[in-house]
Amino acid sequence: MFSEKMSEAMAGQVNAEYYSAYLYLSMNSYLHSINLSGMANWMNMQAQEELFHGTKLYNFILERGGRVILAKIDQPPSAWDSPLAVFENAYAHEQKVTGLINDLVDLAQEERDHATNIFLQWFISEQVEEEANASGIVHKLQLIGNDAGGLFALDQELGSRVFTMPASG
Ligand code: FEO
């Protein structure tokens, strides 16, 4: 059974995912402002993914007969010291989201809510990818340091990212 407690916790995650979209859009805006349009594109695609995550959770809650009370979305930061600081923030944020998903899985298991537990496994796998993507870019930026050529090449690479709707959606 889908408890009210589980429903409220899942609704909290809807908010966290939409906040993530807001955070990445804010990073998109900052990166545009310093003319790193490829990195900005990467953040825009990331924001699209977060909207997808939020909506996937939202739809599941409704499907289980839950009610979603939409909460206020916090204002994200708007400036960072460097592209490296942006991606370090993104990586730290994904680690935090992983913790939130793990808490939801713990609750689903405590409640013996197998359907929610199975649904959340998709997010567990997704978080492995999310963390790997962000930390991979952090490592590249650390290697690049102050090399303008390296930064330009990475910006070009990240400019090719596109959003494709996951098949399980
Ligand atoms: Fe929806 Fe980036 O986790």
How is the secondary structure organized here?
Layout: H1 4-33, H2 37-63, H3 83-110, H4 114-144, H5 148-158
MU-OXO-diiron binds at residues 17, 20, 50, 53, 94, 97, 130.
Task: Report on the architecture of this protein.
- The protein has helices at residues 4-33, 37-63, 83-110, 114-144, 148-158.
- The longest helix is centred in the C-terminal third of the chain and has 31 residues, at 114-144.
- Helix 1 packs antiparallel against helix 2 (37-63), helix 2 (37-63) runs parallel beside helix 5 and helix 3 runs antiparallel to helix 4.
- With 169 residues, the chain is mainly α.
- Residues 17, 20, 50, 53, 94, 97, 130 line the site of MU-OXO-diiron.
